[in-house]
């Protein structure tokens, strides 16, 4: 390889920097079966693998087998895969755009399998991928996959990734800017406020801050892309609806059983214990999961608002945080991104039992142990952070710091947990660092450490490692691990991953979604229900695992209709997933209806019908660099105007047209599923069927337009989209990123629902 000539072929984001370039043949992996076949080969350790997304679990066997490097087409260093490649010490460049190469089955430009590539990760944030001169390239005219986003949409998303709502930044500056606009002291924890209901103003302030805080923690994850193994966005969105529907009842019962002070005591576990899921992530996710689930359910029109349930969830969450901190600011984002929770006796124990590394092999062995246990935690918890939690940094006398990290390796609440047999419930690593360069540390509210520069592990000097055998093992029986048992646990983790991966890969899509939803729905409440002695009652008497009917309805919209992939990122990137409680107001001028209705249907729009400046001055809309959005007053005003419109016509006048639309709607859904699975010939045949279905819907649309003229616009928009699709622009069939037939059709469907004031349950097709 030393004599090989290389040419730059792509750039992406460096996960961590290293001055030594990495070279090897590249291998494209686009399915779990491809991953398993690859790790069975003899070339793993010499190969650089290329995958689509930045999710962790898809590459589990390859990471455990020790690939030489990783490239992704999607993703960012803050994603789960970025975290794990740092743990493994595997060079990785994410979100790579290749200038030339061959085409994947989906038309992406990628290097040819077997071509020699070099990763230059000597600088950040941008890394460079080079390829051997003369590597195969696609012939001219070979179809190229449409870009994941057009340039305008990508620019809008980039603005929203960098600033919340296009205005508020990440970090301490963003926290201070956002809090300056709040009207209550709800984010300050004190004894008196624990025992009274929250006011509407307090609930709304917490909702608003929750939107910024979730964005601050997770915005970078919005770019991690798709997983070839686990449908994350689908299961997350379904689980949030289930959490909204059922958690408030359980939170009330727990509070009635143990009292307000008992709930505060549950939060104190994170100070008294290591290896507990009563931690930063779970107290954050319990309250915000209910609030975000409310946002999803309201967005889908599947439920009536229940302000008392939102109030209950936020009150319970504040009590946990009060126990966690003992008072004061509620979130780590308000505390300089520091989470120094553990009582001093733990820190003294760590100091007494730490092993400082004197040989390179000690540090290498520890990092391999850490990576294996972390990987199993991710896989066991279906690629989410419920299996991982950090606290710290705790300062040390030598000017360094300690990060304390829990990895959760067993959970008997999940039937697949038996595949990770022979492991303790959790291992805890007290990791000692003494940086020889400045490090900017941020421990975010989901219990995860990020640093700049990213590769903080290079400064690791020593560690003390502990095991908690069961979730209820007393804290004084948590035991120090020696190197021999650490090796045994590492081997058992690798074996557990080897069993779990094909088990998950063999599930149907629905099974994966429901299993992932079970993790979210179960895990966020589980440690507090156990701590309150209520878990067995919730499961046995109250049918904890029973799926709520509203959740079942949401599945069809979120999964079968494919809305989850666009809905979840939009709701948390824009903050609209946390709608405040509505405030009473006089209805706006009826002339504002078109603009408000457009935003109610789409969530955001680059252009508005009518005078946007006047609507902004009235407090109904707000401009962001990414587009116009409704304010809380705008949402309320739209509902008032929509109610007035409903009163102005007879619903029976459009009911026959709507019934006609529904008969075509079901056939269009079937066609969309066939389109996604079809090859070029099948899609060509489906275009004619698509044209026929649109034509069959036109009489219904035109009949509706005679009653409500604004519906006539859908006829025109469908004609434009269909014309472009028939002209060869395939994205105009299904893509959510343009005015495709599917995009316009879904907006038309939603408009029918809004206009008639009916739910998808009443409609019957979801």
Automatic annotation (TrEMBL):
<feature type="domain" description="PEP-utilising enzyme mobile">
    <location>
        <begin position="46"/>
        <end position="98"/>
    </location>
</feature>
<dbReference type="Pfam" id="PF00391">
    <property type="entry name" value="PEP-utilizers"/>
</dbReference>
<dbReference type="InterPro" id="IPR008279">
    <property type="entry name" value="PEP-util_enz_mobile_dom"/>
</dbReference>
<protein>
    <submittedName>
        <fullName>PEP-utilizing enzyme</fullName>
    </submittedName>
</protein>
<dbReference type="InterPro" id="IPR036637">
    <property type="entry name" value="Phosphohistidine_dom_sf"/>
</dbReference>
